[in-house]
Amino acid sequence: MKNLKQVILVTGASAGMGLEMARELQHDGNIVYAAARRVERMEELKQFGIKVIPLDVTDEDSMTNCIDKIIKSEGRIDVLINNAGFGSYGAIEDVSITDAKYQLDVNVFGAARLIQLVLPHMRKQHYGRIVNISSIGGKFANALGGWYHASKFALEALSDSLRNEVEQFGIDVVVIEPGGVKSEWSQIATDNLVKVSGKGVYSNMANKFAGMVSGDISKRAAEPIVIVNLVRKAITAKTPKTRYSGGFMAGPLLFLRSILSDRLFDKLMMSQLK
Questions:
Q1: Which domain, by its residues, includes 242?
Q2: Strand, helix or coil at 184?
Q3: Run of H or E residues at 23
Q4: Would you state the pLDDT for residue 73?
């Protein structure tokens, strides 16, 4: 049975969508735990009654301690929002395998381990919502973002398998697919892109892509509240959809990906880099 006040863990809550999620979901009357590595950047959340907790999704002890603390304090956890993630951009040839593995550690394995840790508690209460923040980039892949897209494709597949495994226990799994949203993401991704592939055989493509993202796309990106409202739907609907999408160009790009062949979609996307 769903509780009126839900106990919610939001990861990656030190900036952008995660910070906004924590604020808004607490305002809705929930018990919210905001978690991230950069604890000092979440200090402002305490004034709203939000509980701040350190979390490194690449560290086993950190993840275990985080979940244990919530269970010890609240006796349950109703909603896990796997929002922690980043985009490590660069040509596949240029990105070191060490960096590629770190991308997957944060975006996939961190989320998966937290899911493993909360599931026994959700099964015990026969209720839970697991919300995985993916991307429209989990449905199609652009040049120069191969490792990021690989992580989001993996998160989508993981969510689909998990949804069918845990439905029997009263647990719902929902994927959120943001398009362009105002956050640190684009700056981190483009900075890394220029650093890794800004010189060499992919430099022309990389610099054009970086300019496009930091220019028109950033200006037209949606406010984080757009994604927060999708999360609200995911955790309050009696029977949530399996996927929600929103943000700049989310609808049009997902539609085009669904109707165009691979070659035609490639031509459309690559035309922006010529």
A1: 7-181+223-273
A2: coil
A3: helix 16-27
A4: 98
Beta bridge pairs of residue 52: 34
Q: What is the pLDDT of residue 1?
A: 45
Provide the domain count of the chain. 1
Separation of alpha carbons 34 and 50, rounded Å: 7
Q: What is the structure's pLDDT at 3?
A: 56
31: left (phi over 0), alpha (psi -120 to 50) or beta: beta
148 is catalytic: yes
Flag whether 59 is in a domain.
yes
Strand partners, 180: 248
CATH number of residue 71's parent domain? 3.40.50.720
Q: With respect to residue 31, please indicate whether it lies within any of the assigned structural domains.
A: yes
Cβ burial of 59 (10 Å; 0-12, 13-18, 19+) is middle
Instruction: Round to whole Å and give the CA distance between 190 and 199.
Output: 14
Q: What is the DSSP string of 33-64?
A: EEEES-GGGGGGGGGGTPEEEE--TT-HHHHH
Residue 202: per-residue pLDDT: 96
Averaged in consecutive runs of 10 residues, what is the pLDDT profile of the chain (274 residues)? 81 95 97 96 95 98 98 98 94 97 98 98 98 98 97 98 98 97 85 94 94 82 96 97 97 98 97 88
Q: Is residue 214 part of a domain?
A: no
Q: Which of 33, 127, 148, 244 is catalytic?
A: 148
d(CA 143, CA 160): 25
Tell me whether residue 197 is in a domain. Answer: no
